Amino acid sequence: MKILVVAYNIFKNVGGGETVYSRIISSLKDVNFTYLSNDVGAEIGYPPNATPVQVEHKKNIYVENDPGFPMYMMEQLKEADAIARSVAGQSFDIVDIPDYFTCGAYLRSAFAFHKVSVKRIVLAMHGNISTSIGLNWDTKDTDVSDIEANETMQFRYADYVYSISKSYIDEWQKRVPREIEYIDPMNFVNYSVSKEKNIQRGGVTLACIGRSERRKGNDIFLDMNRWISTQSVKKGIQIGGIYKFQNGVGSDYHLQNLAGHRSINVEYLYSMSRTQLNSLFSERIIVVLPVRYDTLNLVALEALFSGCPVAVSTKAGVCRYLDETFPSVPYIKIDFDDYGKAILEIEELAERYDDYRNELVEAISNIDIHI
After folding, report:
1. Which whole number is the average pLDDT over 339-367?
2. Does the structure show a pLDDT above 60 at 121?
3. I need a labelling partner for 357 at 20 to 30 A (CA). Which of 18, 117, 129, 200 fits?
4. How confident is the model at residue 274 (pLDDT cuts 50, 70, 90)?
5. Does 67 sit behind a cis peptide bond, omega within 30 degrees of 0 on the bond before it?
6. 35-60: pLDDT as tens digits
């Protein structure tokens, strides 16, 4: 079987979508995968059943269409054309495209033009780009209706749709009534945790992990650090890729300035590999994820099932998942309507960190996980 994954740099990037794809590719060793790359020469660490292909974008394409072809469709058709051109003449059983792309509705035409044989196009529901744009600092007033139209078209036109978030499934089925296959997110989480008692000493670090865009709540994390009063918390750190504002300034600069003006002791670290994150979860860390919106949040599950305490916003789909599937696993909910409660719970957790972590490990050890 041959599968084309329409995602870039899967084994280099560390987002939720890349995590899912890397685990799928690594587990299906008898399947041949092709995925996209911006720089094939820099790709390292991918398994033998995966092949990166270079995607080179053309500046212009010509569409014979009467009346004229709309511009909001043209940009997505160019993207689809570039993807299809990178695998011209090949055959695939499945093409899997994540819904943070918006060119899915145009892939069939592009594949046909470049003589790419495809049996089925599958849409993976991870989170729409229109939502991120609508929630970001410099684009929150942007009209995203054209982007939403492309997202809806690709959702309708895909042969098959799947998601790891029941909340996100419900959200989309209210918009377009069609079947969406649910896959348990624990299929993509490393849940082996040491049962040894935690015997570390010292202060606790609060860690906000994720791309530093407004949707992820990095600015809220800074504010939370300002209100944390316990001496048990030594510092806060933010870990993740940067978002570039339209003027070219990075979100790291914006957040560092915000922290400096408020005298908040928070460091900014860039993206870590999965191995580095797993190592981080074994330290005296509380992962704090005050997201404004998230379809799920795999980081929360990866941290928790590594035995690392987590505080996560109720705006993330992972809260519903944990409450329904693993009600015995302790974690802190950040409810923006009762903000102070979460601050107090984080302080209490930090002050009895070792006991709390040991209780978390014990709860995980007693779970019989069936996937």
Report:
1. 95
2. yes
3. 18
4. confident
5. yes
6. 999 888 888 889 999 999 999 887 67
Residues of the chain with pLDDT > 70, as a percent, come to 95
DSSP secondary structure letter of residue 210: S
| Rounded mean pLDDT, 122-141 | 92
Burial class (CB in 10 A: 0-12, 13-18, 19+), 349: buried
The C-alpha atoms of residue 254 and residue 281 are separated, in whole angstroms, by 27
DSSP class of residue 245?
Answer: P
Q: Which of 335, 332, 336 is nearest to 309 (CA)?
A: 332
Q: Please state, in angstroms and rounded to a whole number, the distance separating the CA atoms of residues 348 and 232.
A: 9
Tokens of 65: 């269409």
- By the 10 Å C-beta count (0-12 exposed, 13-18 middle, 19+ buried), 36 is classed as buried
Note whether 330 and 344 are within 8 A (CB): no
> Which residue, among 230, 199, 220, has the nearest Cα to 344 in the 3D structure?
230
- The one-letter amino acid at 30: D
- CB contact at 8 A, 125 and 169: yes
The structure tokens 């992820």 sit at 216
Q: Model confidence over 224-239: pLDDT tens digits?
A: 999 999 999 999 999 9
Beta carbons of 256 and 219 less than 8 angstroms apart: no
Pair of tokens at residue 25: 């590719």
Q: Is the pLDDT score of 334 beyond 80?
A: yes
Greatest mean pLDDT among 72-86, 259-273, 323-337? 323-337
- The residues facing 250 across adjacent strands are 244
Q: How far apart are CA 266 and CA 288, in angstroms?
A: 13
Nearest to 300 by CA among 341, 346, 332, 344: 332
N-term to C-term CA, the chain: 23
Dist. CA 152–CA 172, nearest whole Å: 9
Q: Which residues are CB-neighbours of 64 under 8 A, at least 6 positions away?
A: none
Q: Give the confidence band of 67 by pLDDT, cuts at 50, 70, 90.
A: low
